[in-house]
Design a protein that fits this description.
This protein has ten helices and no strands. It is an all-alpha fold and about 210 residues long. It has helices at about 1-15, 25-30, 35-40, 45-70, 70-90, 100-125, 135-160, 165-175, 180-185, 190-210.
């Protein structure tokens, strides 16, 4: 499971000389806001990174899995995300948005990059020219191509939405969160989240209709 691989990565990080807080400090870390935890991560406190993982690891994996459609790739994305957090926590600026927004943005980009990389590798595997596939297989290939095209269109449409609407939709449909859970994750009122979802879905519907014309 992805927990094992991430924990191994965190252990390697600790071996690189990260600071070890006392038991009292660990209790305090558990009560810290995400933004404060990222400050500690930037100072190489591995327990702060572990706390962020405890809070967001499963959600990040869920989103990565929805985007990539592959468990192994999703696990790799989780590792990449937390490695990136460890390396770039100092670049996070609270005034630009919530820590959860920053984390999920990293997740989304890493997952999309991983999907593109996997697709490029698949393209290098060409069928021999002297092989003729049965008609039934051709039909399956066409359906798979159509499915991937639709998925790409959805992602392209999502990219055009305002960031707050896009994030709410991604948490709902990629992360599988309820509206209340989205509100809690983002620290926003439930009514605000409902409005963002409604407006975002309306725009997404119009954009996808335009793609289909």
């Amino acid at each position: 499971m992805y927990t094992t691989s991430v924990n191994c990565r965190c252990a390697r990080i600790e071996d690189q000389g990260a600071r070890k807080p006392t038991d009292t400090a660990i209790v305090e870390i558990e009560r810290m806001r995400d933004e404060d935890l990222l400050v500690l991560v930037a100072q190489r406190h591995e327990s702060a990174l572990g706390m962020i993982y405890d809070r967001y690891g499963r959600l990040i994996y869920s989103i990565a899995l929805r985007i990539t459609g592959d468990r192994q790739t999703a696990e790799e994305v989780v590792q990449d995300v937390f490695q990136s957090v460890w390396q770039t926590a100092g670049s996070y600026h609270p005034e630009l948005g919530a820590a959860s927004t920053w984390l999920l943005s990293i997740t989304r980009h890493r997952a999309i990059d991983a999907t593109r990389s996997k697709r490029e590798r698949a393209r290098t595997r060409e069928y021999p020219l002297d092989q003729i596939r049965p008609v039934a297989e051709d039909t399956l290939v066409e359906r798979e191509v159509e499915r991937r095209v639709l998925r790409d269109e959805v992602r392209s449409a999502l990219d055009t939405l305002p960031s707050n609407q896009r994030q709410a939709i991604e948490l709902a449909y990629y992360g599988g969160l309820t509206r209340a859970e989205i509100a809690d994750t983002l620290g926003e009122p439930l009514g605000t989240v409902k409005t963002r979802l409604r407006l975002g879905l309306l725009k997404l519907r119009d954009l996808l209709q335009a793609f289909g014309e």
